[in-house]
Amino acid sequence: MVRGPRKRVAFRRRRKGRTDYRLRSRLLRSGLPRAVVRASNRSTVVQIMSFDPRGDRVLSSAVSSDLRKLGWEESTSNIPAAYLTGYLAGKRALENGIEEAVLDAGLHVPTKGSRIFASLKGMLDAGLRIPCGEEILPSDERVRGEHIGENTVKAFEAVKSKMEDGK
Fold it and tell me: Residue range 69-78: average pLDDT?
């Protein structure tokens, strides 16, 4: 632990490795809402958040388990589910009047074609404006789930068409 009168203890979330305050400061200075994407072993969570001095406010959100209500019976932790979750979050954000955001991947290591960027592609396809490079997004074949199997492709098409119809 820190000892001595001139030592300063870091914030608790920094000590535990949960928050990169330098990155958070840069994102907040942009003045845009943040598209926060968090991927776990079981699901993907996408939230559009704005800064408030008393705590961040969630403007709209989608969780990959929400896809079950639309008929998704596949895994909720793969690339097609991440894309559909981002697409759903983008549609909900547009309904709430949010048209532009900046991606907040948190402490996730940005890997080309990962679930984080599949969610980003879903939000872009829904109509949100988020600055990014095209080379980091996964290919359309991986987004549709062709690398997983034919059942995933069929489920993907069915759920996406339900979202486009607005049901």
Answer: 96
